[in-house]
Fold 1-acyl-sn-glycerol-3-phosphate acyltransferase.
Amino acid sequence: MSRPARPSRFWETLAVVLVKPLSRLLVKRDWRRGERIPRTGGVIIAANHLSWTDPVLLSHFLYNNGRWPVILAKAGLFRVPFLGRAVTALLAIPVDRGSAEAAKSLHISAQRLKDGGAILFYPEGTCTRDPDLWPMVGKTGAARLALESGAPVIPVAHWGAHELLPYGEKKPRLFPRKTFRVSVGPPVDLSKYEGKELHADVLRAATADITAAITQQLAELRGEKAPETPYDPAGR
C-alpha cells in the first residue's frame, strides 16, 4: 500500500540512517511541545530560518514527531548530480526565487498538502538578516497556501543552528557541542481571513500573524523580549 506524501522506503531509510546519527552527533536537543504537531493530514510547518543547517535539524525533529518533512529547496540543488536525484526522491520542492517559475512551488506544495504532507515553510524566504536574529518580515507564500488550502499553520521556532553554522560561513563550529532548541506553538488563528479576497493587504496581514506566532515561540526559547515590529530588509 502506498504512503501519501512520503518517499519510497529505500530513500526514507537512507535519509534517516544518515541524518539522525549526524544530528545527534552535532547537537544536543531541547525539544518542546512536539505533541502539537498534527500526526495526520496536510499541515504547514512555519519556522524561522537561521542557518543552512536548520532544515536538516528541523527535519529530524519533525520525523521524530511523526511527520515526514517536505522541504522547499533552491532549484539549483536539483541540478547537482546524484544530489538532485536524492532531493527529488525525498519529495523536496524546487524553488526558483525571483523567476516566473517561482509560483510553481506553491502549486506543488498545494498538491503535497492534498496528499497529506507536512510542508516545512520558511516565511522569510531566506536566513534572517535581522542583526539580533529575530524573524524578518515574511513573504506571503505560506499565508496564501494556508488560506487557499485550509491547512493549519503550526508555528515552530528554533535556536542554536546558527551557533553550529552561522549564515554565510562554510565551516561548522563543532566545539563546544551546541544545543538545538525547538518550541512548537498552537495553530495560527487565520479564521478572520476566511472568505476574504486574497489581495495584498489580506495576505500581508495573515503573514504578519504567522510571523508573530513564530516570534512568540522564539522569545520564549531565548528568554528575551522580541522587538515590537519585525526587521524589514527592504525598508531598513
User: Anything to note?
Assistant: Strands lie at 27-32, 43-47, 69-74, 93-95, 118-121, 153-159, 178-184.
